[in-house]
Specification:
Strand order of the largest sheet: 1-2-3-4-5-7-6
Radius of gyration: 16 Å
Shape: globular
Strand content: 25-35%
Oligomer: single chain
Largest sheet: 7 strands, mixed
Number of strands: 7
Number of domains: 1
CATH architecture: 3-Layer(aba) Sandwich
Structural class: alpha+beta
CATH superfamily: Gcn5-related N-acetyltransferase (GNAT)
CATH class: Alpha Beta
Length: 178
């Protein structure tokens, strides 16, 4: 599965995000070799949801792999111009950030961290930098978040508001000065 054109580099991506840099974060564009990490990261976001299912570990792993591949293909097809980034800390892959900078807004397609890196302030640092970038460009920031995702508290603290109930997800938007 190709995740990017072959002429793109996996070299670090500089954005000038000061808070993220202060938290030791770096970014690089995803490449095919990252698929195993990205699948493991995706699975880590679904662990508690699948705990109630009476499936074997092998069945859960198969389901999660299928779901990851479907999500990944969908994201790539629907957002071909997005930045597909692996988030690193101290040279270790710890998360992903998929962001699409559109003319009217920045769309956060996905942001996720491995469990051992959640709740440690790295997401807050990264989100504040993204909001600063959007504010400087005069843009809003939008994202879809599952209603019971613990990150919902962070998004509300940062000033995101729910604009539309999408069933399992809420469409949330942040506007500078709101």
């Amino acid at each position: 599965m190709n995740v990017q054109p072959t002429n793109m580099s996996s070299a670090p991506v500089p954005f000038g995000w000061l808070r993220a840099a202060g938290a030791g974060l770096g970014f690089r564009r995803i490449v095919d070799a990252d698929l195993a990490f990205l699948a493991r990261l995706y699975a880590s976001t679904r662990t508690s949801e699948l705990a109630a299912f009476p499936w074997s570990e092998a069945e859960k792993a198969g389901f999660l792999d299928m779901q990851f591949r479907a999500q990944h293909a969908h994201y790539q097809a629907q957002h071909p111009d997005a930045d597909w980034l692996v988030v690193m800390q101290a040279g270790v892959d710890i998360g992903r950030l998929y962001i699409e900078r559109r003319p009217g807004q920045h769309g956060i397609i996905d942001i996720a961290f491995l469990p051992e890196h959640r709740g440690r302030g790295v997401g807050t640092a990264l989100m504040r930098d993204l909001l600063d970038e959007a504010a400087e460009a005069g843009k809003a920031v939008a994202l879809h978040v599952e209603k019971f995702n613990p990150a919902m508290r962070l998004y509300r603290r940062l000033g995101f508001v729910t604009e539309e109930d999408k069933g399992v997800y809420d469409l949330m938007r942040w506007r500078a000065g709101a």
